[in-house]
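hiii so um. not sure if this is the right channel but i have a protein structure encoded as tokens and i wanna go backwards to a sequence. like what aa goes where. can anyone help
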């Protein structure tokens, strides 16, 4: 189950951030090739690909030509993550019970002054 979930999540990620989504347009390519084959039975797949990708022309089926895979490129989803400048404070406390020393750590993963300084103008250009 974990394998299938990871495959689905990886596929979703790749289809949304790369040009891999263009492969979903392959049925349009096949249908358009069949249309051209009906009009000209002597056309080969190589000639069809060369006609649409090597030297495309604006003809009657230009709108359909634009729906073919890898003809029109779009910018994929871009995600930018920034990590705020924060300090990690470690407070070491010793708890003594029954003459044994036990160490406890409190991790504060946030800067206490960060919320107050959020409305200040930037200090670095």
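sure thing!! here u go:
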């Amino acid at each position: 189950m974990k394998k299938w979930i990871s495959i689905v999540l990886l596929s979703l990620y790749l289809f949304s951030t790369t040009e891999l989504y263009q492969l979903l347009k392959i049925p349009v390519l096949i249908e358009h090739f069949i249309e051209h084959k009906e009009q000209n039975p002597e056309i080969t797949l190589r000639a069809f690909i060369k006609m649409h990708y090597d030297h495309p022309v604006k003809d009657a089926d230009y709108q359909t030509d634009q729906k073919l895979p890898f003809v029109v490129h779009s910018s994929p989803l871009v995600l930018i993550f920034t990590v705020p400048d924060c300090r990690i404070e470690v407070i070491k406390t010793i708890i003594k019970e029954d003459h044994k020393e036990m160490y406890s750590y409190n991790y504060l993963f946030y800067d206490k002054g960060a919320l107050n300084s959020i409305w200040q103008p930037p200090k670095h250009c």
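oh and The radius of gyration is 30 Å.
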